[in-house]
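Appendix B: complex inputs.
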Amino acid sequence: MFGFRKLTAVAALLGSVFASGAWAEGTVEVLHWWTSGGEAKAVGELKSAFEAQGGIWIDSPIAGGGGDAAMTALRARVVAGNPPTAVQLKGPGIQEWAGEGALNDVQAVATAENWDSVLPPVLAEIMKYDGKYVAAPVNIHRVDWIWASPVALEKAGITEMPTTWEEFNAAAEKLEAAGLVALAHGGQPWQDATVFEDVVLGVGGPDFYRKALVELDPAALTSDTMVAAFDQLRTLRGFVDDGFSGRDWNLATAMVIRGEAGFQIMGDWAKGEFLAASLVPGKDFYCIPTPGDGFVLNSDSFTFFKVAGDENLKGQQVLASLIMSPVFQKTFNLAKGSIPARTDVALDDFDDCAKRSHEDLLKATEAGALVPSMAHEMAIPRSVRGEILDVVTKFFNSDMSSKDATTALADAVARAM
Amino acid sequence: MGSKLGRALERRLPLIVVSPLFAASLVFVYGFILWTVWISFTKSRVLPTYDFAGLLQYERLWSTPRWHVALSNLVIFWALFVVLCLVIGTLLAILLDQRIRIEGVIRTIYLYPMALSFVVTGTVWKWMLNPGLGLEHVMQQAGFEGFRFDWLVNPDFAIYTVVVAGVWQSSGYAMALFLAGLRSVDDELLKAAAIDGAGPLRIYLRIVLPMLRPVLMSVVIILSHLAIKSFDLVVALTGGGPGYATDMPATFMYAFAFQRSELGLAAASAVMMLMTVIAIIVPYLYSELRRR
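Resulting structure:
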């Protein structure tokens, strides 16, 4: 309530002070679900940057359901012909809405600021519809991280970080022998899928990953490589403790923080939990990429909806430019724990994990090993993703054979297309 | 003249008062039921579209393994939930009906779970049944090292934990209804039966329970609709997991409509749920109306 009152006050103030100027800088309504801790702070950065330009920012945070509630609200608003200016929307979801003719492009801004040259091509492609930018990325999260507890590793006598899945399995067995939980994991479908896609990348390599989880090629989905990936997932299942079912990811991270568990496989939002516990990367916790020399990309973005009126259009363009400005990309990502989507931003103030992430991003882009995340809605439509998640989580929670899992996977994909 | 108008108004007043509500329910209940049925015959994904696509969504629905899991879970949950609530509710009501002391206190205790929302019930049972935190942990600390109770995380048994939590919450309610029914049985009848030499067991089985038939029907209908639309309990207790082992039609519908942009398929599943409800309610209404 206080937030809203303050907001109205700010809007009124801006309206009176910049009576003529404010018009020129536009109005935006931003629909998002960043309402907790670091995320709220990060979106606050965007708000103050926009207001500093003299624009009017109407905040529409809709919490709950990991964005499901916001998507429902969005659907109602678009159907009613009153869409917000920009929406926190990512991946193929952008294409879905663009296909419905619900988006505005910001190609003019993108051309003027040369977005093509500063974004990784894989990411730029996701932001475009019909060759024009309809969304702007705010960050890059890396999904294929292993988080490790030095305390637990020492207890188990592990000195070398695993670089292949075989080494990982060997290390996990040592941890179990030492009476620790080898792999901290939460049994929720998206977490199962996160581990699954990292395993697919490690076992099959980036080209296989793209064929199977991006292009959804049936031959790749039922191949022996996919069987091997499921076998490895089955092995990982054995390293998870009994109480994993339904556990939230941050509780699994807490097990690593307390040294009860050796490893967690999770995206770099987990880093926020370590930092909040005042741990230092490289000393109190380790971050190492999962095996496979790739980079699984997850990125949040703002998508621009079809608003009308000069003031709103102006606001939309200013917002797009602002999101992609190096200054904002830096402050936002320092608050959120991810790395800038622009590859030309200096990372001096970031921690070691973020620097490693940035280096690997450049290397992976070079080597063609940068792949979009399936589990985090970057690669394929939500409907197909949902079907794949069903199969993976079913496999993880039953004694289904790897061979059956690949067949089920191909069937599920065929059904959802 | 004035009194004639007044009388006309008086005659129509109930109609006038009820009609807005009637119109609202016509649009917002039956109108949207029709809309959902329509959507289920289209290819709607992220936004509703209105091009007829035949039975496509129903074919997809019935070829989805998760839908079959949801349906079999519904049958298991429904049958066990209703039967257990009835049995426990009746037993508690009969025991309470023995003119015991502090009946009011005991009745309140049994009825209390009903005052909680399913979300609270689900969360509490989730902690109690969690192998690492709850019952199993406590028993193992108490010295029973080999004690295992991992239903919550076992895909084959997780649905029974939903039954346990649901029965815990709702059997007190069944008890209250039965108790009210028992109290309405005429004492004279019971005395007459006792004089004729019928024992307590026989009095209950042959006289009291048959007289509770209307109450029984109400309880079954209320519990059944709770079972069919059960959503919050599952979400709070298991989140549909492990995997999707405790998925129900309602959670299935939610997942497909709001998490997967599959409006058409979700609408088809909603229509199937509606059919299930109709299959129960219509025979009941028919028998009730015919009796009058």
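The interface with chain B takes residues 65, 68, 71-72, 75, 78-79, 93, 96-97, 100, 187-189, 192, 241-246, 381-383, 385-386, 390, 393-394, 396-398, 408, 415 of chain A (CB under 8 Å).
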